[in-house]
Amino acid sequence: MKASKGFRRGTRRRLKRKTREKFKVGDFLRKFKPDERVAVNINPSSHKGMPHPRFEGKLGRIKEKRGDSYMVEISIGNAKKNIIARPEHLKHVK
């Protein structure tokens, strides 16, 4: 049988959350300002606006707001990647 090549392939442990962490309303109502530092912390219970799992745990900066989502610039080596993610998948970093 051919192996699946889906979006969430190989993320059984990476996208797992404990029961108490699964749904908090405050995560969905977070606000960010441009040039603010954030960490990508994917919430597996919300599929909307979820960045690719390869960006889990990466740090970046908010570039702009796009509708309900935010554009985040992440540096990977010398390359700069722009991802679009909703606030429940982002976390403030000091």
Structural account:
The protein is mainly β and 94 residues long. The chain has a single domain, classed as Ribosomal protein L21 (SH3 type barrels), CATH 2.30.30.70. It has one helix and five strands. It has one helix spanning 25-28, and strands spanning 37-40, 59-66, 69-76, 79-85, 90-92. Strand 3 (69-76) and strand 4 form a beta hairpin. The longest helix has 4 residues, at 25-28. The mean pLDDT is 92.
What's the SSE blueprint?
Layout lengths: L24 H4 L8 E4 L18 E8 L2 E8 L2 E7 L4 E3 L2
Measured distance between first and last alpha carbons: 47 Å
Helix content: under 10%
Q: What integer is the average pLDDT?
A: 92
How many structurally independent domains?
A: 1
Largest sheet: 5 strands, antiparallel
Number of strands: 5
* Architecture per CATH nomenclature, i.e. the level-2 architecture: Roll
Condensed summary:
With 94 residues, the chain is mostly beta strands. It contains 1 helix and 5 strands.
Task: Supply the key terms.
94 residues, mainly beta, SH3 type barrels, 1 helix, 5 strands, globular
